[in-house]
Write a structure and sequence with these properties.
Layout (H helix, E strand, L loop, with lengths): L8 H12 L10 E9 L3 H18 L4 E6 L3 H7 L4 E5 L6 H16 L2 E8 L6 H8 L2 E6 L23
Parallel strand pairs: 1-2, 1-4, 2-3, 4-5
Helix pairs in contact: 1-4, 1-5, 4-5
């Protein structure tokens, strides 16, 4: 994308915040799960995290979890964790209007059908689309680096907010 047609920072931030707003919840019964594990990475990072993922699935129970992975790691996740249900999203989405907006239209309605007790984010250097997609998940507890992203505080510069004791 050339610099001449790239949206200015304030416009990208406004669009991202609008896309991160929760969808209206339907009054139907939603399925409740114990944990959502967010590991949207490239293949190498996913391979390195398989030990941690096995530990998390033993802790929460694989049948009570939902694994959110990238398209590139999905085949390995299917082999490594066959009993865990998966949601697959792109590893990258750089353009708010062309990539993240269609992703929201396709995924957010599906994601709002489930409620989680725990949301475990194993992605530390999150891009804008990671923070936006994380904001669509409904969970009571957040386990991840920094604060849970929301519409009011999106990580637009691809740097996590580190806790003081990091």
């Amino acid at each position: 994308m050339t610099a001449s047609i790239r949206l200015p920072f304030w416009a990208r931030r406004w669009l991202a915040r609008r896309l991160a707003l929760p969808l209206p919840r339907k009054k139907t019964l939603r399925q409740s799960r114990r944990a959502a594990i967010y590991k949207v990475d490239r293949l190498g990072d996913f391979v390195l995290a398989t030990g941690a993922l096995h530990t998390l699935f033993r802790h929460f129970g694989a049948e009570h979890c939902r694994l959110i992975v990238s398209e590139v790691a999905a085949p390995l996740a299917a082999v490594e964790f066959p009993t865990v249900e998966r949601w697959v999203i792109p590893a990258q989405a750089a353009q708010v209007w062309r990539e993240i907006r269609p992703l929201r239209a396709r995924l957010a309605p599906i994601w709002t059908r489930e409620k989680f007790t725990h949301l475990v984010c194993l992605r530390h250097a999150r891009a804008l689309h990671h923070d936006v997609t994380l904001s669509w998940l409904d969970a009571e507890e957040w386990h991840g680096l920094g604060k849970r992203p929301g519409p009011e505080s999106l990580n637009l510069d691809n740097r996590p907010e580190l806790p003081a004791d990091y």
